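Changelog note: in this version the structure field was regenerated for every chain. One regenerated record is shown below for reference.
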Amino acid sequence: MGAMEPAEPIPLISLAEQRPYHEDNPEQALEDVNRAIVLAEASGNFRRHALNTRARILRKLEDYEALEKCLIAITETKLIAGQLDIGRERDFFDRLPQGAISHETRNLFLEYLA
């Protein structure tokens, strides 16, 4: 799928979404989504989608330091008219263990969701 549209992030995002659960390979998923983020930034499309996918993978890996940075990046992502993306998602945020991220980041993300 990625070979057909090498500049589009969706094929890599889709692959990254399946790896942690269907292939039990979150490490490879993280590599895939990091490549997708580069493509999303270049195209301007699906930036939020790629970051949300990265957040889910980091939660599964229990890398809360990287997840906190990802949450901040999500809140800083501004959608521009004409660019394709998804809405605000919170499933990965709601399942965080108590104390996994700072209170400041928690409040910033809650404000973003409001």
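Spot check on this record: Residues 10-113 form one domain. The chain has a mean pLDDT of 92.
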